[in-house]
Design goal:
Layout (H helix, E strand, L loop, with lengths): L4 E5 L16 E8 L6 E9 L3 E11 L18 H10 L4 E3 L7 H12 L4 E10 L5 E10 L13 E3 H9 L3 E3 L17 E2 H7 L7 E4 L2 E2 L9 H7 L9
Amino acid sequence: MSLPLRYKICRWPQAVKCLSNNSRKLKIKVTELLSNKYIHGMMIEVKHAEIGTLFAAVIQGEGEIVSNKTKEGDVLPWMTTSEILKQLLKFGFDITYTERLTLDSQTLDLLITLRNLGYVKVTKLVVACRKEDGTRILKSTPVAIKSEYNQDKLVYGTSISYKLFTKRVISDSIYNLQDISNDTIKWDWIDAMYGIDDILADNSDIEDFEAWVGETRIDKNMPYTSPEYNSDLTPYDSTLGG
């Protein structure tokens, strides 16, 4: 039997290049949920050519069909990266995920500008607003903050009243990133409290997708999805439907 395949990725869309050690009929699909009003996030699936979806997980999800807390007020978390990787391993995908943010140049340029203006962290705050009819709503809002003026808001997902939020935006201690969200700049990757300096350091030396057969590193330029790659290098077992 051939040596098993292993992979290292630094963002989930790279997972579609990974092949299963169990069967050639198993594939990973990554879908960005961006274009609908019901949910915004990313979905990772394991699909079998004949059976269909065998595993699915949503990450960084929010929207009108998503409940964030139980009726008792307990947080309902999404699966962690570690938990998802264990499920992928069940289907033969041996993947290591390096926790690094890989952002486009426009977003990085904007973060550099914000850092030069004194903002040191990016996160999301839950802003409590009211509609015209008086209904209270909670809106998850991406922001950049100056830590020295926001010691009470240095936890991801902290609530803030609309009045206080507006006051701090006017005083330039909080920058509402939603105001500059557009087709090219997105903030869906903000799922924690991040230091801007840390983000910029991560993106100064990005590790690309990596693959091994056993302990042998494979050339980055190899066509990972080619039939030759599948048949020659993947240790499929015919008893597993490969």
